[in-house]
## 1
Amino acid sequence: MPCREANHVCDKSQYQEATVWEKVKLNIHLLLCSFCRNYTKNNTKLTRTIKASNISYMDKTCKEALKKEFDKALKEHQIN
């Protein structure tokens, strides 16, 4: 497994999207590659930090409404 693929599988694994076979191949790769072990370690740390931060964000409906208002204001202030 090339490092690029290993990093992609690592990302998928963080979101429970990796297959069992991908995880097996990743773990074999991690035994051999210190660079990917470090990537995996940092990726895991980042995921834990984000989950623990309790960041709130706008839902899709609010984002769309804000975008409409922004586009409307932008059109009103455009130079002809």
## 2
Amino acid sequence: MPDVVALPPIAILGAGSMGGAVLSGLVASGAAAGGVTVTNRTAEKAAALADLPGVTSVALADTPTGNTDAAAAADVVLIGVKPAMVPDLLREIAPVLRPGAVVVSLAAGVTIDTFAGILGSDVAVIRSMPNTPAVVGKAVTGLAAGPTASDVHRATVRALFETCGVVVEVPEEQIDALSTISGSGPAYVFLLIEELTRAAVGKGFAEAEARVMAEQTFIGAAALLDTSGEDPAELRRRVTSPKGTTERAIAVLQEARLDDVFARATDAALARARELAAGA
């Protein structure tokens, strides 16, 4: 993790699952020296974030001007609402944005051109695609900067997301493809854990035992990959003794064409991202 740097005032408009995950990592890092204001529609959601240190949590149900108030006071404005709600929110905050502020999208499929068309082409915009391990400081975040985002904007936004994991900078045309790998990727891993747990139950283990075996195997394997620095294929080979049990299991998985399954799954996710961009 890079050294923590003090960040300017930040607004997160729509601190739902993804905005909330980024907020958790940001607060845990201690980097939000300028303060963070977050908005949610309901008092219940706002109350859940109200006790976080350095965070001002606003319920739009109680304070209808919460989005504009937060945006007007921030140098970095994160847009965390659902993609269909983005245009209305941008029209709401456009008149109050600070000169030099950067607007950061958390919304899948919403293009920089869409932001520029509403905010104006002079407003700095950066698209981001984090994933939910931001909550524990282990996110992968893709960033794609718009043409008016300066080096300072890019460095600030990068520092923000590095408080909750690692950052990959890509051209905008790759951000949707990135979302199919790291953005959706935690769900793929959780699905694999579900299925391995189910297989363990099918072999007579109690649910609790099955969960421990499956979950801790994934956690341990990921930790080994992280600390060893080895290629995953090499680590797999070390577990796979010639003519052993693992080799037989791997053969079944390879016969199932996992390469094709993952290619088709990520292609489907990419197609949906493009549909969202088209407003479908």
